[in-house]
Write the structure tokens for this entry.
Amino acid sequence: MAAGFWLLHEEQAAAAVKAFVNIRNIRHGEEMYGLAWLLARFDAARMVKEIAAIELPELPQDCTFRSQTWAAIHRFYQVVKDTKTVQISASRTARAFATNRALGELQHIIENEADLPEAERSLVIEIAKTWRNALLEITAEVGDLAITQPVQNPYVIGDPVEGEQFVGRDDIMRQLQELWMMAEDHNLQSVVIFGHRRMGKTSILKNIESRLGSGIHIAYVNLLQSAMAENLSDVLSAISDQVAATLVIAPPRDADMETSPARSFQRFMQRATDALADGKGLIIALDEFEKIEELIDAGKLEASFLAYLRGLVQDSPRVGFAFAGLHTLEEMSADYFQPFFASVIPIKVDFFQPTTVQDLLPNPGGDFPLDYDYDALDAIWELTAGQPYLTQLVGFQLVRRYNDQVFERQQSREPKFMVADVQAVIDQPDFFDKGKPYFQGVWAQAGQDPAGQQALLAALAPHPDGLPIEALWEAVDLDEAACAAAVQTLENHDVVRQDQGQVAIIVEVFRRWVLQTHLQ
């Protein structure tokens, strides 16, 4: 009886499924019914939109009777998922990749026809060929997408990236979700987010609330705006104003903050905690937190300020802090930081991996019709080392160049970026002009203690592959200990790397900027 079903097609298949209801209670009957139901649904879908519209039930865990056929079903599932991507994705690259992957799965089924049980073999192969033909019909459409007006530039340089354009930090976002969404007894863990200049730390703080659901509020405070603060009142007012806006409660009165800032802020935080509904928490995100150290060093804050904040956290487990800045915990030289940071979790924001660059640039969100050759993506990573700001800058310049060529100069070209395009935008002077916020920021940081960091960078700039550490000692006016300290600081700041005694600048375009700016 079962064998007869697999020889049926089209409208007969649906009727056969109904007939199978009567045998679901026999041995393997449930498995055979599920298999029959799925094949009937697949056989009924002939067009791409019909394939994409298939709702996929969860596959059973233990399928032993028709294992080869179930293996084909798994491949059909992947084809349906990829076809959905082809239907909804605005990215030409994503659509083409999904189409090719789906065609590969179908070709695998067809090429391994002999592995399928004879009873259902013809039906499975017919479905695979039908779906393959449907996808092949749209392959030309995916590859020949017409671009009739300038492409809107989707890449963000300078400003924090928010919304669907924020990609590439899933590991950090997951870690923060685990710390804050799954906190036991609602005891929120404080964290310090640190890393290289312009790595996207602010973007993380700006986007994390959307990943936390309604249980956690984020009060974002940019301490750069407190750089002109004159006293404790100014700093605490900046924090309380953002907390009040986040929780929609009244901030402390200005007069109270001026006369008794610490006590007024403590009372305000108690009100803020009371305003939190059951099960909810508050994270106070302090961006550019090294400004606190500067204010303490300038005598505008007492050295006990961090201990004061820590006490507030200990008073309420439903309130935590997220600090973001350049320094690692090991570089916190002043003792007043230690009582607070002994209880926080450090999270480093690192360079993008090559796979992230390969995903981010071709799929920046929205209707992006341009494509990238994989060699071009590799070249971008080699030039930027995956530094987020510079990666976005290269993409930004590529889109500008494409629009200029096609719509200003009326040149005919393929809507796909190649290695030559990448090299062309890097060679333009305005690339380094637009990259100044990053380049000059790294250079200025290298001008701080320990001494000799800028001299080391100048010595390394003419050498793409770097220099042996001994050659650096000879090239700069530093003794061995001072040179080692400077190199170690640059390495901690992700500016240089050491590998088997060889020291090299990590970011190739920064090396070129140093060469052009400080050695000519």
Notes: The beta strands are 191-195, 216-222, 281-287, 319-325, 345-349, 371-372, 416-417, 467-468, 496-499, 502-505. The mean pLDDT is 84.
